[in-house]
Specification:
Radius of gyration: 16 Å
CATH superfamily: Peptide deformylase
Largest sheet: 5 strands, antiparallel
Strand order of the largest sheet: 1-2-3-6-7
Number of domains: 1
Number of helices: 3
Number of strands: 7
Distance between the termini: 18 Å
Length: 174
């Protein structure tokens, strides 16, 4: 089931998400719906707060292209436990801030620990686009958006664009 994605500014996007005590069937279904929503958007990552759910759940799949096998991941309570000293700058976008992109610098590689859909603990080191994406999504769980890495002026301009977009969509009944 496709879920509605919140558009910035929305106070729910700035709240810190609550830890998931236990992976339930309801949360597994939410993860599946979030993946469907992410693929449909199309995007490579989505955090539960972006669909109005204040829990520590992210989904991602950075395998892009027709000749690659999808690798959908659902992570409950993900946390970065190590990061590289090497940094990487990537032109980031966000499904909650449509059609806006900006360079954000983050660690090139990160090791993340999380609970999978079966409640088992997982740990993996990600690099490149996967590292950028997982850090971006974990930021959402902390109430942080990629535009928070930009200057105040750029952030204000983007926020104004999003307010206008929301107003225009409301007028159109979208």
């Amino acid at each position: 089931m496709k879920l509605p994605i919140l558009i910035h500014p929305d106070p729910r996007l700035k709240k810190v998400a609550a830890p998931v005590p236990d992976v339930t069937d309801e949360l597994r279904a939410l993860a599946d719906n979030m993946l469907s929503t992410m693929y449909d958007a199309p995007g490579i990552g989505l955090a539960a707060p972006q669909v109005g759910v204040g829990q520590r759940l992210i989904v991602l799949d950075c395998e892009k292209g027709d000749d690659v096998t999808p690798r959908p991941l659902a992570m409950f309570n993900p946390e970065v436990i190590a990061s590289s000293d090497e940094m990487n700058t990537y032109d980031e976008g966000c499904l909650s801030i449509p059609d806006i992109y900006a360079d954000v610098t983050r660690p090139e590689a990160v090791t993340v620990r999380w609970m999978d859909v079966n409640g088992a603990e997982q740990e993996e080191t990600f690099d490149g686009l996967w590292a950028t994406c997982v850090q971006h999504e974990i930021d959402h769980l902390e109430g942080k958006l990629f535009i928070d890495y930009l200057s105040g002026l750029k952030r204000q301009l983007i926020t104004r664009k999003m307010v206008k977009l929301k107003r225009d969509r409301a007028r159109e009944g979208a």
